[in-house]
Amino acid sequence: MQEYKIKKEDANIRIDKAVGNIEKDLSRTNIQRMIDEGSILVNGKQVKVSYKVLEGDNITICEKEPEEIDLKPQNLPLDIIYEDDDILIINKQKGMVVHPGARKFRWNFG
Q1: Distance set, CA 75 to CA 72, 78, 109, 110 (Å)
Q2: CATH code reported for the domain at 2-61
Q3: Over 50: is that where the pLDDT of 110 sits?
């Protein structure tokens, strides 16, 4: 947990921008998600992303530990068009997920 006090020169800007100025390693999208989830508080209270910080506001940032994801590879038939020591070209089937994402996909291999 990290706490910051808003200085006069940082006042009157949106909370997501203020936190972005403080925490350079967090993206604006992550900051907005954290505000919506209540992981970023102003004076101990949850605020909306549009909240404009005031001089003296106390910002609390509670970063959650990343969730461990149990990914298992699948043995899928691949339509290999070309392969050498440096390149592999595959004709990917429609609907085949090539990497995990935040959304839940509907598996459609038919």
Answers
A1: 10, 9, 14, 17
A2: 3.10.290.10
A3: no
